[in-house]
Design a protein that fits this description.
This protein has eleven helices and seven strands. It has a seven-stranded mixed beta sheet with strand order 2-1-3-4-6-5-7, with helices on both faces. It is an alpha/beta fold. The mean pLDDT is about 90. Helix content is about 40%, strand content about 15%. The chain has a single domain, classed as Rossmann fold (3-Layer(aba) Sandwich), CATH 3.40.50.970. It has helices at about 5-10, 25-40, 55-60, 75-85, 95-100, 105-115, 165-170, 185-195, 210-215, 225-235, 260-275; strands spanning about 45-50, 65-70, 90-95, 120-125, 175-180, 200-205, 250-255.
């Protein structure tokens, strides 16, 4: 058993539930490396999960406290927990692209607006792969999927100048980053910084789905070919107008620039209790 899994994960949840060649295991391990690098123990962090491939991979794996939310609702649950838990307790959410950028987007934006002290790891495999490979909110335009046999026609959140991280920045997020699941220490460091932020953080991981996106969208289950396609996706040569355009690294770091939601709420409550409340 991997030493990180033995230290942080429940034995009955190992090995991975992901398909062979899936990048979710890489994302999961990077989270654990960042946790270890940060010196966080199993009693220091509450781990919440969403629905889909990502939720199934990470649900109830953490040896500490866990919770799960139905479609797009894990953020609303996290807001309540953030207000109830001690400030030093970390809250981590692992969600998929549908949970983050589709059905859960409204809740996600409100989390960013409030600057709620949670770290969101959004693991994106370019569609609804756990339910059969339907196209989603980041599927590259023109790609064949099980629900778009002639190619997707809808624009996504990662092309034609649009970037979902820009929307989250405008909403009020104080730390944002993007990486591929193949990256190493650079990605781990981004997660560590996200966990350190006393405010809303999101790290967007793009990872390969061999079973659906690879087999149908790329017409191959060959891991080497799929890896090369993802390398090109993150290449500096990849420019807007050539499909999805993504860059790796931290895209926004404003840690400490805004009050954290729960801390501000507690401060306001104290003011009211002590009679220092001033009517706006």
């Amino acid at each position: 058993m991997d030493y990180l899994a033995e230290r942080y994960l429940r034995p009955r949840k190992i090995p991975s539930t992901a398909c062979s060649g899936c990048g979710l295991g890489q994302v999961h391990k990077k989270i654990l490396l960042a946790v270890e690098q940060s010196g966080i123990g199993t009693d220091d962090l509450v781990w919440g999960t969403g629905i889909g491939c990502t939720g199934r991979q990470t649900f109830n794996t953490w040896k500490g406290d866990n919770f799960a939310g139905t479609h797009g609702r894990v953020y609303a649950m996290a807001v309540g927990l953030r207000a109830a838990l001690p400030e030093e307790k970390k809250i981590l959410l692992t969600v998929g692209d549908g949970d983050a950028f589709g059905i859960g987007l409204s809740h996600l934006l409100h989390c960013a607006r409030r600057n709620v002290g949670v770290t969101v790891i959004a693991a994106d495999n370019f569609g609804y792969q756990s339910t059969g490979g339907q196209y989603g909110y980041t599927t590259p335009q023109g790609f064949v999927t099980d629900s778009s046999p002639y190619g997707t026609r809808e624009p996504g959140w990662l092309q034609d100048g649009a970037d979902i991280l820009d929307i989250l920045k405008s909403a009020g997020a104080t730390f944002l980053a993007r990486h591929s699941s193949f990256e190493g220490q650079k990605a781990v460091d981004s997660i560590e910084k996200a966990l350190d932020n006393k405010g809303f953080s999101l790290v967007h991981f793009i990872y390969p789905c061999v079973t659906h996106f690879g087999a149908v969208g790329l017409n191959s289950r060959d891991n080497g070919k799929i890896v090369r396609w993802f390398e090109e996706l993150f290449s500096a040569k990849n420019r807007p107008g050539r499909g999805p355009h993504v860059t790796s690294g931290i895209t926004h770091d404003a840690r400490g620039s805004r009050p954290e939601f729960a801390a501000a709420l507690r401060s306001r409550t104290r003011e009211i209790r002590e009679g220092r409340h001033v009517q706006a």
